[in-house]
Amino acid sequence: MSSNNTNDQVKIGAYLLERLVQLGTHSVQGVPGDFNMGLLDLIEDHPSLSWVGNSNELNAAYAADGYARIKGTIAAVVTTFGVGELSALNGIAGSFSERLPVIHIVGVPNTAAQGAHSLLHHTLGDGRFNAFENMSKQISADSAILKTKQGAGDAIDRILVSAIKSARPVYLALPTDLVHDTIPADALKKALDCSADDNDPSAEKYVLKVAQKHIAEAKSAVILVDACAVRHGCVAETNDLINKSGLPVFATPMGKAIVDENHAQYGGIYVGNLTSEDVKNVVEEADVLITIGSLKSDFNSGNFSYRTPKESTIELHSDYTTIGYSHYPGIGMKKLLPKLSDLLSQDGKKRLEQTKKVIPKFENKLASEDKSQVITQEWLWPRMGQFFKEQDQVIVETGTSSFGMLEAKLPAKTRWVSQVLWGSIGWSVGATLGVALAAREEKLGRTHLFVGDGSLQLTVQEVGTMIKHGLTPYLFVLNNDGYEIERQIHGEQRSYNDIPAYDHSLLLDFFGNDKVKSNAQSHRNDAKTSEKQYCKVETKQHLDELLKDVKFNKPDRIRLIEIMMRRGDAPKALKRQAEATGSANKYE
Amino acid sequence: MSSNNTNDQVKIGAYLLERLVQLGTHSVQGVPGDFNMGLLDLIEDHPSLSWVGNSNELNAAYAADGYARIKGTIAAVVTTFGVGELSALNGIAGSFSERLPVIHIVGVPNTAAQGAHSLLHHTLGDGRFNAFENMSKQISADSAILKTKQGAGDAIDRILVSAIKSARPVYLALPTDLVHDTIPADALKKALDCSADDNDPSAEKYVLKVAQKHIAEAKSAVILVDACAVRHGCVAETNDLINKSGLPVFATPMGKAIVDENHAQYGGIYVGNLTSEDVKNVVEEADVLITIGSLKSDFNSGNFSYRTPKESTIELHSDYTTIGYSHYPGIGMKKLLPKLSDLLSQDGKKRLEQTKKVIPKFENKLASEDKSQVITQEWLWPRMGQFFKEQDQVIVETGTSSFGMLEAKLPAKTRWVSQVLWGSIGWSVGATLGVALAAREEKLGRTHLFVGDGSLQLTVQEVGTMIKHGLTPYLFVLNNDGYEIERQIHGEQRSYNDIPAYDHSLLLDFFGNDKVKSNAQSHRNDAKTSEKQYCKVETKQHLDELLKDVKFNKPDRIRLIEIMMRRGDAPKALKRQAEATGSANKYE
C-alpha cells in the first residue's frame, strides 16, 4: 500500500472524490465515525471539496437530497457502518422515492475483520456483516460492496452513472483498509458519460408520427409538467416544447416552477379535483393532454382524481412513452422532446393565439375582504409570493406549507423544493442546509424555508450546522401549536397531535453560541458563523412591513421568523386532501 | 366491522395493547402519522397506557430501548409507514445488537391500497409495499405483516413471546383497516408464557456433573458476569450462584452493576488488557472462569484481549453452555444456574474464606496529588460514584462517559445503562427519556445522564419530551468541544471532529417554553411540565459543592449540569481502546 498518490496510481478514496468533483459535487454531507475517518481525511484535504459535518445522519441525508435538487447532479453523504448508515435510511429512501441521485458512502470495518465475522462494536452481535447493505439495497438503484482493490474504480464508476441516469440513490461500502489503497488513475482522465441513451430511431420515428397525428387532430391540447421533467434534466427541452408548440401549460404540485409561472402560456397548478375551476376546465376539456415526467401520486394528483381520459393522454417519461393505451418502452423524453418540439413548431403561432384566449391568469391575489389582523393561511401564501425574487429557493415542508405555497405565484427561476411523494416531516430543515450550500456554490438568490412548529422539532439541530457554515437562509416557522396536517386528517382534539412548546426566540442563540468565538480553548477553523435575527410576527400588518423592509430583504444573516397562526386553519387544498386521505384510511 | 368491543370480540389494536399491559408495559413511544392514528386513539383512551409522543422516531426507538432496560419487559414504539419506521431503524438495530425486547408497531396503508400497489405518499413510488418490512426483518427476531383479521391475535402473541424469549426486537405491520377490526377476545384471558424452556434433563445432568468436576478440581475459580445475565432475566440466579458458591466475581463493562459493587466477593471490572493489574491477576490466574451471559465484543473485552484459556472456561448462555471445548446446545442458564448453585453451595464457606484473601478492593478513590481545579477525567468519575444513591439509574453515552464511569463504584441496586456493543452516538439522550419514564413507573431513584457535547447534538430535542412529561433527570453534559472519542481514535486536530457551538445555558428554556402555559390558544392537556435548573461547572470545587448540596440532590426538577473539560483528556481505558481500534482500522 502506498500512502501517496503517484501519477499512475490513486487512492480508492481519492478516486471516488475526484469523480464527485468531476460531476460537480463540492459539498459532502455526513457525520464522522471510526470506520470513515480515513475518507474524511481525504475530503478535508481536498481543495475542491467541503466537509459539511451534519448534526446527525438523517439530517445529513436530507441535506444531500436538498443539495441534489439544486445542483442537478449527484449529492454525497458519508456515514459509518451500522449506527451511522441506518440513521440515514429514511432520508435516502426519500431520495429514492422522489428521484434524486445521492451516493451513500459508508465506511465499513476492514475486510479481514468482516471475513472473520468479528464481534465488533457497531455490529448486530451475530457475525452478520451484510445485514445493513441488504437493507440499503431495498432503497438503492445500485450498490458496490468493495472487498478488494481489483475493480474498485469500475464499480465506483458504474454506481455513479447508475445514480445519475436513474435519478436514484446508490450505496457504496468502503472498508477502512481499502480507502487509502491504490488503483490505476488512468480512468479518471475520461469523464463519466451520464447522458441519456439514444432512442431506437425507427421506434422513435413511429412514436413521433403517432403523437403528431393525435395533436394535429385535437381541437385543444394541453401540456402538464411534472417532477421527472426536472429530475431527468429535461427543463430546457420542456421549455422549448412549450415555446415552439404554443400550447397552454400547467404544472402539478411536484412540477411547480419548472416552467416560469410568469410565462404567457402558463395557467397554474392542476391537481385533479383539488384544482381551481378555471384551470380544471382547460385541462379536463382538452382533447389531448401531454404530460412530461408525470408522477401521479395521491398528493400530487388530488388523490388520483384526474378527469383526463387515458386514451387522449400522451405521457413522456425518462425511459418510456405512452400514447393512449399504446406503450413504447425504451423511448425516453430527453431525446424525444427536441424532435417533438420541432414538429410542433409548424403551427406554434396559431396555437399561441388560441392559448391566449383560454389560459387562466395565475396571480398572487390577497384576500381583501378579511379585515382581521390574524394571519390566515388564505392570506399568507399569496403575500409570500410577492416577497420572493428571481433565483430564490423556496423549500416547503410537507404539511400546510407544501399545500399552501401552491397558491403563491413564484418569480422566474425560483427553485421550488418540496417532498410531496415521500412526505417525511422534518425533511425540509435538513434539505434547507443542502439547498443553501448549493445556492451559495451556484451564486443563486436567497433560500427560504417554510416549516411548521411540529415538523421543525424532528430535525431542529441542523440549524446549528447552517450557522456553523455562515449560511443565511430565511427560516419561516409557522407556529400553529402542533401537527396541523395530522389534525386535518384525524384526531383534531387528540393530545397525540400536541408537541412540546419551544421558545423559538432562543433557537438561533442556542444553536449558535457567539460567546465561544472568544474561547481560547477552541481550535475551530470553520468559516465565519452566521449573524442572526429572530422576529415574532402575530399580525398581517407586521409581516407585511417586515417583508417590505429593505434591510430584511438582504440575506446578510440567518433569520428565524416565527409566524403565529391559528390551530384548525389550513390551506383549502390541504383540507380537501385530508378529507380524501382520512376516508381512504378510516378507522371505523 | 364493529366499532365497539363486545365481551367476546376485541379490536385488533386493543388486543395488542392489552397484551402489552399484561406484559407490564405502560408507556408507548412513537410519533403520530396518518397511517397509525387509529391505534393512537386506542392508546390515548387506554386507562393503563401513556402515549409518550417523541420528537422523532429515532429518539422514540432509543427511548424504547432505555425503557426495556429498566422494566425488564418488552417496550413498544409506534411509527408510520416508510417515513416513520425507517427513521427508527438505527434504534431498533441497537436493541437487536444489545439484546432488548422491543416491538416496533408500524401503521401501514389499508390492505386494498397495498394490494393495488397504489402510488401513495410515504411509498417508494414504484408500487413496492414490502421494501420496508424487508429492511426491518434484517434486525428483527420475528415479524407479523397483518393482511387479514384471521390469525391476527395468534401472530401478535407469537411475536411478543419471540421478542421476550430472544431478548430482541420484533416488527408488526398494522394496516389502517385492521386496527379497529375485531377478533375473538378469549385468548386474552390466558397470559402469554414467556418463561425460558426447560433443559433436557439427562443432558443438563451431564453438564452439571462436568461443570462441578472442573470447579472442584480447580485451585481457583472466578465468576465473570456479563450483559446477557440481565437481558435474559438471570440476575437473581446469578446472585444466588455468587452467594452460594463463595467465588470471587467480576463484571465486564456491559455487565457492570448487575452484581452489587459493594458485595464482599466483588472485585471490579475485567476487560482484557485494559484491566487494572490487581483484577487482571485474579481473573487471568484462575484455573476455571465461569462466564454468565458473556458477550465478548471488542469494546467489552479490551479488543479481544482476554488472557483466559478456552479450555478452562465455563460459559453459561441463554440457550447453550460450553465447558472448555465441549459445546452443549439447548442447555440454557436460566434453568441450569439454580442447580449449579445448589451443587456449589457445599463448599461455599470454604471458598468464601479463600475469596476474601484475593479479592481486590474496588473503591471510589479520588486522585489526590493533582492540585489543579481543572476537572479531569481521572478525578470526575470516582467523584460521581460518591454522588449516586441506591436505586439510581446511571446512563452513559458511548464515548468518554461509558469508559470513564467504569472507574466509579456504584451503590447497590443502581441500574447501569450503557450501549457498549452497538455504540450509537446520541442514543443515551433518547434512552434517558425511556429510563426516566420507567423509573417513575417503578418508583425507583434518580436518573442521571452522562453525555458529551458531541453526542448530545444528535438527539438533543428529546429533552423537550422529558420536560413535557414533567420528568426530572440530571443531565450531565461533558463539554470538551467536539467528538473526543473520535479524536482519540483518529484525526485529533481534524476539523471534522469539531461541532457547532451550542449555548447550553439556553437548552432547557428553549425546549421547555414556560410562557406558553398561559397561552389561551393552547389546548395542551399534558402532565405538568418540569421545573428547570442549569448549572455551568468549571472547577472541581464547584462540582464538589454542588454534588454535596442537599437541594441539588433532590430530583424535583430537570437539571442540566454543563461540565467544562479539556480537549484531549480521556479516561485511561478509552485511550488504550482507541489505540487498539485505531490500529485495527489504520488508514496508511
TrEMBL record, chains A, B:
Subcellular location(s) per record: Mitochondrion
Record text on cofactor binding: Binds 1 Mg(2+) per subunit.
Binding-site list for Mg(2+): 453, 480, 482
Record keyword Transcription regulation present: no
Keywords, sorted A to Z: Decarboxylase, Lyase, Magnesium, Metal-binding, Pyruvate, Thiamine pyrophosphate
Domain spans labelled Thiamine pyrophosphate enzyme central: 210-331
GO cellular component, one term: nucleus
GO MF term set: magnesium ion binding; pyruvate decarboxylase activity; thiamine pyrophosphate binding
Annotated CDD domains: TPP_PDC_IPDC (cd02005), TPP_PYR_PDC_IPDC_like (cd07038)
Residue ranges constituting the Thiamine pyrophosphate enzyme N-terminal TPP-binding domain according to the UniProt record: 11-118
Major location (coarse): mitochondrion
Entry's family note: Belongs to the TPP enzyme family.
Protein name as annotated: Probable PDC1 - pyruvate decarboxylase, isozyme 1
